[in-house]
Amino acid sequence: MTRILAAGDHFVLNDLLTDAIGREVTGHSVSYSELTLPWPVVPFGRIAEVDEASGTEDELIEALQGVEVCVTQMAPLTEKVLKACPDLKLFCISRGGPVNANIEAATRHGVAVTSAPGRNAAATAEHTLGMMLAAMRRIPQTNADLTAGTWRGDYYMYGNVGPELEGSTVGLVGYGAIGSRVARMLQGFGATVLVYDPYVTDEALAGRARKVEFDELLARSAVISLHARVTPETTGMIGAEQIAAMQPGSIIINCARGALLDYDALCDALDSGHLFGAAFDVFPQEPIPAGSRLLTTPNIVMTPHLAGASKATAQKAARIVAEDVRRYLNGEPLAHCANPEALMSAGTV
Which of 119, 305, 326, 336 does the annotation list as catalytic? Predict the structure, then answer.
């Protein structure tokens, strides 16, 4: 009998996790226990040495006693948790990367950590297109005026209207699972797509976009959308100098990570009129603190870090981790493991 803890939350529900595992592990004897974490009702944050986690170490330790497999989205896998839970062997995180796990400590303790890459790629790509259109056509602002009882005819003035996607050049910074989907969607709008991604190949672009250097992308794009991971090289990659190099009247979209962009420099460019607009789903501090310039700078469209939030995302996330639970129980290599050496050294797979 393999004991499995489903440590879900209010998005990736425990029922989704256990139902998905049940469909995958037929023929194996398993038992379930459950822990419900407070995210997203309570924002995630740093817990001990891991980021973007929910709940507490102590409640997770209590729930993991005697448990061999944990499936979760936000539970914190820390050194303290690992030391207190010697039966744990597999920790499956149902999100794009295992940011809420101490991978080095997990490896030392013989715990394999998996994730669910691509789970929210379609949802985030669709949201990105929605944010582009909202910023270009000022949809939220005009809706707010109408619901307040004001008909703003001046929005139709030539100097106030925005560009179209058809015939525009859109620059994508990053061409992974999300960026490539955005490029495919932009083709349908008739946009020209440029890509800056040092790792992408011409074959991967598949004729949908053209690879260019960063400076060319900045200079030629009417819209720039960020889809890069946060690394030492990409942190702060769009700052005052890069924004100044963009076309007057252009637009920045960020549905990736707040650390990619200097938001203060962005607000300066909107206040000066150098940029037409911007749209953000991610921020340097979440929730946005009171007094932030983002709350008062004009022509910004914002959503609260929910670009990847769809029912399909939650269902895919549960299915992807359940498939790795099945592989683990069958003694097969894990598909999305951050530290396969953890189980190999323990002689499990």
Answer: 305
Same domain? For 223 and 335 the reply is: no
Residue of 109, 119, 257, 336 with catalytic role: 257
Q: CB count, 10 Å around CB of 189?
A: 16
Place of tokens 């106030």: 160
Catalytic residue chosen out of the listed positions 34, 59, 126, 286: 286
Catalytic: 220? Answer: no
Other Cβ atoms closer than 10 A to 10: 13
Assess whether 272 and 335 both reside in one domain: no
Q: Note whether 114 and 17 are same-domain residues.
A: yes
Specify the pTM.
Answer: 0.90
What pLDDT score does 345 carry?
59
Element (H, E) at 2: strand 2-7
Annotation marks residue 336 as catalytic = no
Residue 346 confidence (pLDDT): 53
- For residues 151 and 102, membership in a common domain is answered with no
What domain count does the chain have?
2
39-65 residue pLDDT tens = 999 999 999 999 999 999 999 999 999
Q: Has 46 been annotated as catalytic?
A: no
Can you give the pLDDT at residue 153? 94
Q: Are residues 109 and 47 part of one domain?
A: yes
